[in-house]
Amino acid sequence: MATPAVTSPASATDSLVRIENLVLHFPVTQGIIIQRQIGAVRAVDGVTLSIPKGETLGLVGESGSGKTTIGRCIVRLYKPTSGNIYFEGADLAKLEGASLRNIRRRVQMVFQDPYASLNPRYTVGSLVAEPMMIHKTGSRSEIRARTLELLRKVGLRQQFVDRYPHEFSGGQRQRIAIARAISTEPECIIADEPVSALDVSIRAQILNLMLNLQQDMGLTYLFISHDLSVVRHVAKRVAVMYLGKIMEISDREDIYDNPLHPYSAALLSAVPIPNPKVEQNRQRIILRGDPPSPVNIPTGCRFHTRCPLAQQICSEVEPPLEDKTGRGHFAACHFSERVGSLRAKGSIQGLGTV
Amino acid sequence: MSLARLLEVKDLKVQFKTREGPVHAVEGVSFSLDEGEALGIVGESGSGKSVTALSILRLLPVPPAEIKEGSVMFFDQDLLELGESELRKIRGGQIAMIFQDPISSLNPVLRIEQQIIEPLQIHLGLSKTEARGRARELMEAVGIPDAPRRLRAYPHQFSGGMRQRVMIAIALSCNPKLLIADEPTTALDVTVQAQILELIARLRRDFNTAVILITHDLGVVAGVTDRIIVMYAGHFAETARTPELFANPRHPYTLGLLGAVPSLDETKAGELQTIPGNPPDQLHPVEGCPFQPRCPFVLDKCKTYPPDVRVGPDHYSACWVDVTDPAEQERAMARGFIPLRQVRDRYAPETPASSTTIP
User: Fold this and answer.
1) Is the pLDDT of residue A340 over 90?
2) Strands of the sheet with A107-110, listed across from one edge
3) Rounded Cα gap, residues B226 and B39, in angstroms
4) Burial of B331 (0-12, 13-18, 19+ CB in 10 A)
5) Residue A297 located in a structural domain
């Protein structure tokens, strides 16, 4: 991709969604009657990124990294503590009321668990029609016709329109959720782990469906997932999150072939590959311990407590997210030039040291 | 290398009674395991992989579950014939099990120490002090530092990865001959998953424990097992040694699975191969091969259940069709199947796989 010289991960010119310094802290309170705030879960702690129009940005990270929270901020299921979310010039973080509803028509969400995200008392038809009813996209008969059309589009039989969600398998339910999300002809879809709850054979069906819809409708995706293999398959640009911050963001090939942050390198080396030949000769970078709690984020670089490259400076100075190659490959690490050598030799500190 | 046969499961059939009729969870599965061997059982939800594992130790609730047929020979005893008290000596002693969700398998109101020393006192007859010393060693063996303090903690004070380490410590406490791990890393993050898989592999080397690893993730079994069984809808589909299965898959379902997973090492993106249709309904099983409604290679004779065809050394596939036959492939491609070649491009080693013949 010919990216112009960029100084910030959010400065791409043709972006549909642009997030600047997004912060979301959930308060932690104590006390029953008089509640005092004693701390905060720093779920998202200053994130800047942009999603180019018609493309897919993959957002990866482990549990607690804040990736879902970012997605939910964009559709404004959460109100950010501070920061801006620009959607074609309008700042989603500040909108309220009718103007927020209007934008929501254009930014839709698909959730992870299709067993929980569909109301069991609604028929498939009313589930798919609901967003169109809310946004008054047409008359009743128009909406009914469009519902049938949408079912066909996501690969469901039109006879299913009057059935209930419990009659469907996970994959079919996710198709219903997708039909519902695209019913208002949105420009952007936030897909939060859309295939994680599905079986392998069904997962491929849903991924292909999402890719086809993207082509047909020119959709922009924020694809949130913990599965790096899936993200590699769907996303052109990938951001890696750790404890509420972006550690690395770059084009897919750069990040997978040549990660410049030790956390991305460790994540990549930890993913099992369905090929015994590759598996046997692989050098794993095994991280020590578990991620720290987002209530108590380490000082300096938040990754330094588990980082195999950590030095004194890492616990004191937080490294900025900067373009390391001049081609839009951003990483937040003091020693990104050493990540390559780490990958080459793997790491011997593994088990036993936690 | 002749190893002693440790476990032999023959013709296992398990059903669940429901109001709508019996659910055929496992339909005649057979396999064996040698001492120190690692076997992967791969399948999607409803394939019967967990039920198979739970049946070995008779951990399924009866009713609704019912083991209809089969035998599970552990050395020379049939576990399905044993009385409850004899079985209890084996559970947690010679055969140990770890589960997917470590929080629901630990007792929340007991300290970790109590939970580790309990099997030591019961199975090995150690005194409390001896058991405590052993518990400390076990905690160190599974990589939990500061053992004396951590032993006094309760499960909720541990993270997911640490809890799974505790489970492994409990499972290994009595030096079992066999460790059954049912999706041990599914609930964990990838970096923690890597730690746990490495731990299982290391403990297997150190203690020569045989392992049955049950998972839906082909990547997980690729790294740690010697042999793999692929299951579909309660039936055996294919088994082979691990490298052979990936290099030379012979069952249409295995082919489909391999084609359907995006892999981190794939060189070209593009449309994933899909297995059309929906997961099987085991309340109303189809006649013959359970995969036929979704199979691109389907023939008329698939209405009769196929025999386990030997397609190579140690390699069996329950399928009528020779998927390597170009004519068969052409037929399948007309039904939207992505050819074997292309799937193999992504997985096969450079050297050709061992030559195979179909009887």
Assistant:
1) no
2) A107-110, A188-192, A220-225, A56-60, A237-242, A245-251, A330-331, A322-323
3) 6
4) middle
5) yes
Residues B99 and B189 reside in one and the same domain: yes
Q: What is the domain range of residue B166? A: 5-228
- Shortest CA distance to A140 belongs to which of A149, A150, A130, A152? A130
ipTM of the complex model:
0.75
| Whole-angstrom distance, CA of residue A128 vs CA of residue A195 | 19
Full-model pTM: 0.81
Cβ-Cβ contacts under 8 Å, B279 against chain A = 169, 199, 201-202
* Nearest-angstrom CA–CA distance, B237 and B228: 11
List the domain range (segments joined by +) for residue A94.
15-28+39-106+186-345
d(CA A323, CA B326): 50
Phi/psi of residue B257, nearest 5 degrees: -60, -45
Q: Is residue B244 part of a domain?
A: no
Instruction: Look at residue A329 and tell me if it is in a domain.
Output: yes
The pLDDT value recorded for residue B1 is: 46
Measure Cα distances from A331 to A3, A268, A320, A347 in Å.
16, 15, 8, 21
Helix, strand, coil % in chain B, rounded to nearest 5: 35, 25, 40
- The 10s digit of each residue's pLDDT in A200-210 is 888 888 998 99
Q: Which two tokens stand for residue B230?
A: 């692929």
How far lies B160's CA from each of A66, A306, B106, B157, B215, in Å?
Answer: 18, 17, 12, 10, 18
Residue A290 lies in a domain: yes
Please name every residue paired with B182 in a beta bridge, in sequence order, or none if there are none: B214
* Minimal-distance CA residue of chain A relative to B201: A351
Alpha-carbon gap, residue B229 to A101, rounded angstroms: 51
Q: Are A239 and A44 in contact (CB under 8 A)?
A: no
Quickly list DSSP for A20-50.
EEEEEEEEEEE-SSS-EEEEEEEEEEEEEEE
User: Is A307 part of the contact surface with chain B (CB cutoff 8 Å)?
Assistant: no
Q: Contact, A274 vs B215, CB < 8 A?
A: no
Interface mutation vs chain A, best among B140, B189, B230, most A CBs within 10 Å: B189
pLDDT above 80 (res A344): no
Q: Is A281 an 8 Å CB contact of chain B? A: no
Name which residue leads in pLDDT, B234 or A291: B234
